[in-house]
Structures are given as C-alpha cells and as structure tokens.
Design a protein that fits this description.
Number of domains: 2
CATH superfamily of the largest domain: ATPase, nucleotide binding domain
CATH architecture of the largest domain: 2-Layer Sandwich
CATH topology of the largest domain: Nucleotidyltransferase, domain 5
Structural class: alpha/beta
Strand order of the largest sheet: 5-4-3-2-1-6-8-7
Bound molecules: adenosine-5'-diphosphate
Helix content: 25-40%
Length: 415
C-alpha cells in the first residue's frame, strides 16, 4: 500500500509517501518514496519536495490555506516530474495517516477517521489549542481532495502514554479538578518514544515485555519517557508540552508561583506569560542568543560565551535529573536511548548528560559516542557499563504509515 503521511502545523504541512504493507512491516522492508515540507502557508509559501534518490526541488508559491497546500502536494506526487514508482494518479494513494497531537483520554490508540473521530479530536482542542485545529485542517483538506472512499487514520502523540498509571499522571491538586476538567499529565512525542522503543527491542532481539528503558527525545521539543515491559509508565511532558525538560524555547519545569510573581513585578497578562514560557524561554531565554543547540555549542567553543555554557549545563542537568528519577521509578533500566535532533546528532550533549552518572552504572565510550551522528544507529556505552546507551534516529512517519496499514487491515498492533 502507498500511504500518504501528513503532519499539519498552523502554517506548515509535512508529508511523506511510504510504501508499506503487513508483510513489509514484518520484514522492515517498507520504503520511503518521497517527502516534503511546505512552510508559511497563508502567504508566499516555501516548498521543498524530494522524491527518493533525487535532489530536492525548492520553490516559492502563494498558497492561501492547507487545502491549497495539499492540492499542490498531490499534484506534484502524481506528476511525471516527481516520477514516484507506482504512483501515477490519486487512485495510487491507498490510505492517509495523520499525526494528531492531542487525543486526551478518548484516543488510546490509532483509529480510522470517521465523523465521530473528528468530533472527538475537536473536543480535545481546549487541551491543544495550537495543534489540534491545524491537524484537523489537514484531515478536512484530505477529505475534500480524496473523498470518503480512501481510508484515513489518526495517530496521536499522546496515545503511547495512555498506559501511565494514575500515580504518574495525576497532579497533586484537588482531585475533583481531574474529575471535572481532566487536568492530568498526558505526555507527548508518544510516536517517537514508541518507535525508538520498538527499534531497541528489535536490535536487542527481545520481546516487548522485556523492554525496560528510558527514552530521551531531545529536539526542539524535548521529553523523557520511562518504559517498563514495553509500556510508557511515566513521561516528562504534562497536560501540555510545556512541562519537563528544558527545550528550544519552552521553560520545562518551573515553580508555578513564578506566574503570579511575574504578573505583579512585570505587569504581564496571563497570555503574555504563556508566550514567555512557550516561546521565549528554554535555550533561547537562558542564553539570550538562540534556540538552536548547534549555535550554542559553537558560541561556547569559539567565544567561550559564559551564558551559552551555562545554558548547556542547565539543559544537561535537567535531563540528568529525569534519568535519575526514572531509574528510581523503574528500579533500574537496561538502556538509555537518545533520539531527536540533539539526541541523534550531538555527541557533545550526550557526553555531558552521561558524565557523572557512572555510579548509576551508566558509562559512555567517548570514541564510539563521537562517531554516532547524522542518522547512525547503535550502542555507545563502555563494555563495563551496566546500562546500555544507544542512539536511535526516530522515524515517526514510518510508525504512522505502519499504524495506518494496521488500522485499515484491522491487524493487531505488536508494539
Ligand atoms: P523537532 O523537535 O522540531 O522535531 P528536531 O528533532 O529536528 O526538532 O531537532 C531540531 C533541533 O536539533 C535543532 O533546533 C537543533 O537545536 C538540534 N540539532 C540538530 N543538529 C544538531 C547538532 N549537530 N548538534 C546539536 N544540536 C543539533
């Protein structure tokens, strides 16, 4: 089956075409055929398309909304210029998989999209006011373009964490607020944590029930996940993606009293504080320079910038704290798995996170670590290390494509 995977943001649309089917999933023989991104939808959009094995095509085109953007994507996919093997018309796309950010308690696994599911995703808008409406735009655009004849599947960022026990997901605020408003920790990046957990199991030749690990998704957004017997039992993001680790522009954990204090001291409104914590904090806020870890590492190395150094230290320290607490919660783990833009590509950050964790049985091999970057996958611990340390590039799109096939064929999910 040719699956179109769609990930719609407020002004962006990312897509991949993945050829996969049940036998291909079993043998890991699925193929990425094309991918692309459209940014700045609503004005002069920037487009980058890439059919596998060819160089990327870039252009700028005015696209007024997601419907126009998807139309543009589909016309390219079936064009002779793209020449994607096996795809000549709309009928050659067999199903569509959508990334949906928030599924709350309603969606604990991926589902075929129906009117009822759309209503359910709308009900979760309160919890993800920026993300779910954008995901819905993608779903509506695909319905308009492809009609109801082609199956569409929603894959939720939250659903992998639906196995968390109450003791992990409840906040210590009055219990009736959970009853009344479902205020609790949901967790995000679930598709990424689930994918790298699955890859780890494959690499180790073990069963799902034997998978006891800590996964660290460190990208622009960052989160940690404690996986016990193959299931998420705790994660660092909460009701929204603001909680937990220090991120590109998000603060992660802070004392909630800071909000009221800021209102008094700076005369800020609640909306401004929300923007401050989500868009002006994290690496950007601390360093005053950038939200990009690459630039911070360069600043520290080339100019001995004190704030850049401090920012990196705080980022790594927060990750260490979560590793420590999850090791306690899991009664030890077999592996730490790094993924995401920083986790996959930065030996420096991985090294600084693991430094000083030898007492916990975490010993990194520096030369193995230094070589592991740019899409490589493997182990980077010393032979004597009790806990393995792995780098596994994430592939959320592949997991969305596979879930789409499983839902369409009503096959059981094995991970
Ligand atoms: P997202 O969370 O938006 O999916 P990614 O997982 O792609 O983002 O991560 C993007 C971030 O990864 C960049 O902002 C940058 O900070 C970081 N990054 C990418 N490559 C490197 C590198 N070689 N060294 C350090 N950080 C990197």
């Amino acid at each position: 089956m040719n699956i179109l995977v769609l990930n719609c943001g407020s002004s962006s649309l990312k897509f991949q075409i993945i050829e996969t089917d049940l036998p291909l999933i079993e043998t890991d023989a699925d193929m990425q055929r094309a991918k692309g991104i459209i940014e700045r939808i609503g004005s002069q959009a920037l487009i980058t398309f890439e059919a596998s094995g060819k160089s990327p095509v870039k252009q700028a085109v005015p696209l007024r909304d997601h419907r126009a953007a998807l139309d543009f994507v589909v016309r390219w996919i079936i064009s002779p210029e793209a020449a994607i093997p096996g795809i000549r018309s709309l009928a050659d796309i067999h199903a569509i998989g959508h990334r949906v950010v928030h599924g709350a308690e309603k969606f604990t696994r991926s589902v075929i999209i129906s009117d009822e599911v759309i209503n359910g995703i709308e009900d979760c808008i309160d919890l993800a006011p920026l993300h779910n409406p954008a995901n819905l735009k993608g779903i509506h655009a695909a319905l308009e373009l492809f009609g109801t004849g082609i199956p569409q599947v929603a894959v939720f960022d939250t659903s992998f964490h639906s196995t968390m026990p109450e003791k992990s997901f409840l906040y210590a605020i009055p219990y009736q607020l959970y009853r009344r408003h479902k205020i609790r920790r949901y967790g995000f990046h679930g598709t990424s944590h689930r994918y790298v957990g699955y890859r780890y199991r494959q690499l180790m030749h073990i069963e799902r029930e034997q998978t006891n690990i800590i996964t660290l998704h460190l990208g622009n957004g960052c989160s940690a996940c404690a996986i016990k017997k193959g299931e998420s039992v705790d994660t660092s993001m909460g009701l929204t993606p603001l909680e937990g680790l220090v991120m590109g522009t998000r603060s992660g954990d802070i004392d909630p009293s800071i909000i009221e204090y800021l209102m008094h001291k700076e005369g800020m409104g609640i909306g401004e504080i929300d923007t401050l914590l989500n868009k002006q904090s994290g690496l950007l806020g601390l360093s005053g320079l950038t939200n990009d870890m690459r630039d911070l590492i360069d600043e520290e190395r080339e100019h001995q910038d004190r704030r850049a150094k401090l920012t990196i230290e705080i980022f790594c320290q927060r990750v260490k704290k979560y590793i420590g607490s999850y090791l306690a919660e899991l009664n030890g783990a077999d592996a730490l798995v790094f993924t995401g833009g920083i986790g996959e590509n930065s030996p420096t950050i991985r090294k600084r996170i693991c430094e000083g964790l030898e007492w916990l049985g975490i010993e990194m091999d520096e030369s193995l670590n230094a070589e592991m970057r740019a899409g490589k996958e493997g182990e980077v611990q010393k032979q004597s290390s009790r806990v393995k340390i792995l780098v596994i590039p994430t592939n959320e799109e592949l997991l969305i494509a596979r879930d789409t096939v499983r839902c369409v064929k009503d096959a059981p999910r094995r991970w």
